[in-house]
Each structure stands twice: as C-alpha cells, then as structure tokens.
C-alpha cells in the first residue's frame, strides 16, 4: 500500500512538474519533460497494477447508477483563452496532502453551466460492458444526434490531477474517445465558441515548431496528423508505450511542450486538439483538472 | 595524506584562489554555467547565467615563489549573449552561456565559441598595448584638423599604451536550432565545429554563418514516438571525421562523417545493459548521460550519468572498461532528489592532461577524483573555510550508514543546494578549476 501511495505521489509531483515547466523562462525543456514522462509511466504502471487488482476484488458487481453518480465529467466549454487563463492562474503547485483511491465523491445535480450545454460523461466501471459513455462533441448541443461509442471491452483507467484540490484520482473509462459526432457547431448565447469541431481524442494535432521557421535550408516536412489517424491512435490508449503516455498528457503531450506558447493560444488551438475534463463536485461548480493517461 | 592526480598517488591539492562574491545571497545572473581552459592552459574562461563571459589569465611564474604556479587574474570580461524574445513563438530565449570552447591559437589573438540555447558566437580576444600617434589630419583627441592648417607632414608612429584587452564578436551563428543547444565542439581540422541540440546536430564552417549542415537528426516523424534526446556531443580529438553523441537513454553513438552526409546510422553504439536489480521509478533519469568527453589520446571516452562515471574504450562497445561510483549513497534518496529537481542536475566531467585521472562534481560542494592507474579515489571540498593560501585540502568522507566516524559527514546533512556541476583541468599541469554555484575555485598541486 505504501508503494502504491508513493506511486500516486510521484504521479502528482510529475504532473505538477510538467505544468510548471510551461511557465519556466527559456521555454519548455524537452529533455527534462521526457524524463518526467518516464517517471509518470513507471509510477502509473505500478499504481495501476496495484489498483486494478484491488478494484477488481472490491468493485466486481458495481451498480450502474452508482457508477454514474460516483463520477461525472463535463466537457470543456467556453473560450479557450479563458480556460487557459484559469489553467495558469489557479494552479498553485501545492503539495497534495491526501489522495483518493479511485472512487470520487458522489455528485448531485449537475452544476450550473455558464457556457454552452454539455452533456455529462459518466465513466463506466471496467466490469460493465453495457454502459455507454455519451461523450459530447465540444460544440454539439443536440444530444439526439450523438453517436455513442461502442464500449471497449478492455477498460482503461485515467489519472486526473485536480488543479484546485490537488487531488489525484483514478477513474475508469471505456477505452477510447469518440471523434466527430456532428458537423455543425452551435453558437450559444453569450458564450464564445470555436467554430471548429472538437474531437474527443486522446491524441492531438502536433504543432511542429519548424512550421514557424523562416526559410533556412531544407527543413523536413513532418506529416501533420489527420482525422484518419484518430481512431488508430485511440486504440493505443491501453498501451504502456511511452509515446501513448505522451499523447494523452494534459493539453497536448510532449510535442506540445515544444510548441506551447502562452500568448499565442488561439493559434495553437487552431492546429491541435485540447482535451480538458472538468470534475463536477457537489455544489462547487467548475474545477480544473489535468487529465493524464 | 594520499590524494589523486597526475598518476601519482602522493599528489596533494592546495587551495590557490577563489573568484566571485563572498556573500551567500547569490544573484541568479552570477551562477556559473560553464568553465573551460584554453589549449595552453594560460587562459581560463567562465560563462554565467547572465550571459557574461569572464576570462582569467595566468600570471607568469614568479621568480620569488618558484613553488607556486602563477595566479589567474581577470583578463577580459564581456557580455556574450543577451536575453532575446522569439516573437513568432512567444518564447523567451535565455542568455545563459551553456558552453564555451576555445579554438586552437593561430596568431596573437585568441578565439572562443560561446553559445546559449539558440545562438553560437565566435569571439576574438585581442590585446592592444600600443596606439598610433602623430596623425596629420587628426588631433590627439580625435578631432579633425582643418586641412588648410597643415603645413608639414609626418609619419604616424606607434607608441606604447596601457594594455587593453578587446573582445569582439566576429561571427554569429544563429537560426539553426529549433531545440536547446547543449553542446558545441571544435573539430581537429580547426575549420569546422558541431553544435548539438536535443534532437539534431549541425556542422558549421567557422567562416560561414548563413548555413550549416545537419548531420544527425533523431526527431521522429511523429513526436509522440519520441523516446530519447541528444544530451552531449563531441568531436574526436584527432580524427576529424569522427564524433560521438550521448543520449538520455544512456547510450553513446559514434559516427563517421565519411560514411554519409546524414549520420543517423551510427558506426558504433556504446551501451551497457541495465542491471535489473537496480530498477526503480527513476531508472531512466539516472541513466541519462549528462556529459561525454574524449580522452586527450582519443583512445577512450568518459561519460557521466547521475550516479557514476564510466570510461569506455572506443574499440569495445558492449560495456565500459571502468566504472566509478560518484555518490552511490544517493540511490536510496532518488525520490527526494526527484521532488527537489536535483535528479535533473547535469554534472560534467573532465580528464587530466595525461588521461590518468578523471574528475567530476557532486553535492555539498564536493568534487571527486578517480585515479585510473592507482585505482584510488578522493573526495575534496571547495569551501571558503578551506581557503587559506596554499592550505592542503583534506579528503572528505561521507558516512553511508551505521555509526558516523569523526570528521565524516552523514548523507542527511549534505547540502543539495551546493553543487559542483562544472569542473576543468589544466591541459598540462595539475591545476584545476572547480565552479560552485557562483564561485570559481582554483586548486593546484602542492609542490615541495
């Protein structure tokens, strides 16, 4: 148990390091962040191996409703800039003094959402293959047009660092994200939305920093990710490959470290997909969280 | 007391000088980031986080004190790099000097390369000890004379003046690196040099600034597949076609530029299998190589990872020929060192002049020497307490467990904020330069 706690502590520390690296002078250090992701992978492997065996023993016959109540996630809505401001302003980097073993506190009514309608996403337990996870598109308001993803028999766990409470929780998901489910975005009243559809994608579009380079001799053109890559990449979610770890980190992964710039958020969003999930706490409204794995 | 150095087990080290501020309140700009002797050892250059380069010159040996080698005094100080801002990426570029490398001296002037994260500069350091006087059209203060007032002509002559050392930027090699430059290395042909960042190595001609050749590129097509980065690179001291680069995975690749233009396929791969008994959360971090240095002979190369120094024979790729533990007692502290970021410290290493001793830094302002021939090692400390002129340095011992003996230091009392990352050894004599955070210590071999 003590080793599992250490692993979760390491995960928490590592995520904070990654977060703080984005505001360091001189830009993101690729080498250091790569090493941190290795620690994350190692700690995750250890933690999940311990947690999975424990969860399988205690939650084998979990009630579906209880699973829904246990954890609800709201999709990110609102302007990206606003979120990014929150992302940076509210993270204090404090040490997490406690941790939760997988199960999150039960939620009541969904909190009032100031922005566009979004459907809560319930996280399925690994033992419930019939539970669908309706995952809304970023700008999709018509729930009837959602295409629900097929459950993945091989459930995966996700580790989330809540930036407000600095609590690391591990939840289970159905395995892969659903991509485009509607074509036309809906513009809500008073809220700033992106016209481009938002893909619920574990991977993301990489911004090659060389995209910005002036002409300076031959620069190899790296292939930009396309929609076709999305499904194939989402299948890698369960792999322990370090690349997959990188691909689902917070707001874009390791390549994002190279291209992330605070002041050019609009430009970054235009070329990559960001996936941040909010954890709904009872009566507390919005929180911010980094989702990893 | 036995020491280590120069291939003689009786070498003792004495304090010689210390440069830098005395107070403990360290200005971040004064943090030393690189130390390098020139090829003759007469000049010692330091770079700091503020982008400044300070060059010390060794005074000629005094006839009054034949037992002491000359002291190093400030020769030149100049601002090499300034902070920049990349407007396209909204990225600030630090002015910190990552590396300094001297060029072999060809004439009266000295040349060095200095680099920050993005830009390499070639500096010319020259002396001026005379100035022309007796111009016909200019007054002595520089004002121009009315030509109508000139009635006679004279030939201007050089007259002696106070020595002035000038540092002028002769070349600026910019816009060739997307990632952070970690190494520069001058080729033995004295015409080219390489610069390495996290994912690429470029080859430059010292005369040409607007183009460079990419000779190594390990950037994957999909950045999600990135598994390692380049951590250091160096040219072979004698073979102008050969260079090595180390990686964050603990491997060293030796490349031959004659094989192909792009040296992505290595000629040799040096890698030691990991000991599965030492597997931990931090195995990848501590195996990352922070420095690689060829021996002066070119037969061996030395690598530094977080806990050890390894000597490799370039003819044997399977394992190092020698391994020295720098501070193995830290293996049980890796979690704490990860938390306080110390585990990411990049220690450098260096050879002595005849490749018989290697040196590297540690924490608590300790530095270690390993005598390869006598199989001895010693731990010394750079501190103001031991800074009496010509006082002999006393070897230090760290208590790793159990009962602590007298004069031993327990691991828990080590100060991890005091670290020696940069050391340099005079190419010919037993003189070493050891950089603490903001002080430069110079130690010399005790001469009887």
From TrEMBL, chain A:
A Pfam family per the record: IER
Which domain of life, per UniProt?
A: Eukaryota
Q: What InterPro entries does the entry give?
A: IER
* Family the entry assigns: Belongs to the IER family.
UniProt protein name: Immediate early response gene 5-like protein
UniProtKB/TrEMBL annotation, chain B:
InterPro entries tied to this protein: PP2A_PR55 (IPR000009), PP2A_PR55_CS (IPR018067), WD40/YVTN_repeat-like_dom_sf (IPR015943), WD40_repeat_dom_sf (IPR036322), WD40_rpt (IPR001680)
Q: Does the UniProt entry include the keyword Repeat? A: yes
- Keyword Repeat on entry: yes
Write out the GO MF terms: protein phosphatase regulator activity
Q: Which PROSITE patterns match?
A: PR55_1, PR55_2
- Identify the domain of life: Eukaryota
What UniProt keywords are attached to this protein's entry?
A: Repeat, WD repeat
GO CC terms of this entry = protein phosphatase type 2A complex
Protein family according to the UniProt entry: Belongs to the phosphatase 2A regulatory subunit B family.
- How is the quaternary structure described? PP2A consists of a common heterodimeric core enzyme, composed of a 36 kDa catalytic subunit (subunit C) and a 65 kDa constant regulatory subunit (PR65 or subunit A), that associates with a variety of regulatory subunits.
Name this protein carries in UniProt: Serine/threonine-protein phosphatase 2A 55 kDa regulatory subunit B
Q: Which organism is it from?
A: Betta splendens (Siamese fighting fish)
């Amino acid at each position: 148990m003590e080793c599992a706690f250490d692993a979760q502590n390491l995960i928490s520390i590592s995520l904070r390091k990654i977060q703080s690296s984005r505001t360091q002078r001189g830009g993101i250090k690729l080498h250091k962040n790569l090493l941190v992701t290795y620690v994350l992978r190692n700690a995750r492997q250890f933690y999940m191996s311990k947690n999975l065996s424990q969860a399988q023993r205690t939650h084998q016959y979990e009630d579906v409703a209880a699973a829904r109540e246990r954890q609800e996630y709201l999709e990110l809505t609102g302007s990206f800039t606003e979120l990014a401001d929150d992302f940076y302003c509210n993270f204090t980097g404090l040490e997490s003094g406690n941790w939760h073993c997988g199960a999150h506190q039960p939620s009541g009514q969904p909190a009032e959402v100031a922005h566009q309608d979004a459907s809560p996403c319930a996280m399925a337990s690994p033992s419930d293959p019939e539970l669908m996870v309706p995952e809304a598109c970023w700008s999709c308001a018509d729930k009837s047009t959602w295409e629900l993803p097929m459950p993945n028999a091989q459930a995966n766990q996700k580790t989330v660092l809540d930036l407000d409470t600095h609590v690391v929780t591990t939840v289970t998901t159905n395995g892969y994200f659903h991509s485009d489910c509607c074509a036309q975005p809906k513009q809500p009243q008073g809220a700033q939305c992106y016209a481009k559809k938002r893909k619920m994608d574990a991977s993301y579009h990489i911004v090659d920093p060389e995209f910005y380079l002036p002409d300076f001799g031959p620069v190899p053109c790296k292939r930009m990710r396309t929609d076709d890559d999305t499904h194939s990449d989402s299948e890698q979610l369960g792999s322990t490959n370090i690349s997959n770890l990188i691909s689902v980190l917070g707001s874009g992964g390791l390549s994002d470290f190279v291209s992330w710039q605070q002041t050019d958020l609009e430009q970054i969003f235009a070329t990559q997909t960001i996936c941040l999930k909010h954890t709904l706490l009872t009566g507390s409204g919005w929180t911010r969280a980094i989702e990893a794995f | 007391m036995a020491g280590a150095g120069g291939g003689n087990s009786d070498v003792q080290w004495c304090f010689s000088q210390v440069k830098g501020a005395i107070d403990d309140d360290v200005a971040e700009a004064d943090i030393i980031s690189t130390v390098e002797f020139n090829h003759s050892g007469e000049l010692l250059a330091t770079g700091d986080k503020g982008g400044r380069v300070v060059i010390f010159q060794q005074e000629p040996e005094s006839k009054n004190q034949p037992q002491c080698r000359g002291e190093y005094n400030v020769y030149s100080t100049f601002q090499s790099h300034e902070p920049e801002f990349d407007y396209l990426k909204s990225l600030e570029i630090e002015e910190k000097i990552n590396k300094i490398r001297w060029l072999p001296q060809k004439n009266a002037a000295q040349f060095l390369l200095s680099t920050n994260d993005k830009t390499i500069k070639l500096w010319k350091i020259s002396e001026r000890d005379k100035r022309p006087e007796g111009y016909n059209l200019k007054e002595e203060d520089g004002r121009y004379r009315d030509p109508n007032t000139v009635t006679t002509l004279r030939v201007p002559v050089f007259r002696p003046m106070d020595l002035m050392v000038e540092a002028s930027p002769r070349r600026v090699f910019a816009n060739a690196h997307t990632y952070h430059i970690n190494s520069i290395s001058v080729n033995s042909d004295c015409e080219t040099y390489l610069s390495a960042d996290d994912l690429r190595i470029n080859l430059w001609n010292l005369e040409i600034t607007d183009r460079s050749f990419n000779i190594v590129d390990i950037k994957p097509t999909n950045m999600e597949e990135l598994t390692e980065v380049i951590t250091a690179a160096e040219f072979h001291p004698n073979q102008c076609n050969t260079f090595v680069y180390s990686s964050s995975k603990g491997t060293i690749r030796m490349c031959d530029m004659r094989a192909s233009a792009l040296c992505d396929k290595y000629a040799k791969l040096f890698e030691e299998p990991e000991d599965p008994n030492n597997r931990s959360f931090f195995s990848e971090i501590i195996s990352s190589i922070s420095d690689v240095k060829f021996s002066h002979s070119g037969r061996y190369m030395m690598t530094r990872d977080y806990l050890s120094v390894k000597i490799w024979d370039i003819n044997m790729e399977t394992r190092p020929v020698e391994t020295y533990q720098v501070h193995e007692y830290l293996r049980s502290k890796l979690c704490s060192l990860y938390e306080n970021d110390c585990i990411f410290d990049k220690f450098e290493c260096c050879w002595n002049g005849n490749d018989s001793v290697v040196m590297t830094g540690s924490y608590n302002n300790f530095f270690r020497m390993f005598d390869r021939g006598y199989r001895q090692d010693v731990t010394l400390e750079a501190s103001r307490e031991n800074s009496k002129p010509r006082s002999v340095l006393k070897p230090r011992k760290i208590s790793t467990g159990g009962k602590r003996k007298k004069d031993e230091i327990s691991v828990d009392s080590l100060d991890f904020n005091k670290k020696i990352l940069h050391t340099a050894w005079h190419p010919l004599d037993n003189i070493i330069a050891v950089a603490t955070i903001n002080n430069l210590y110079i130690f010399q071999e005790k001469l009887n």
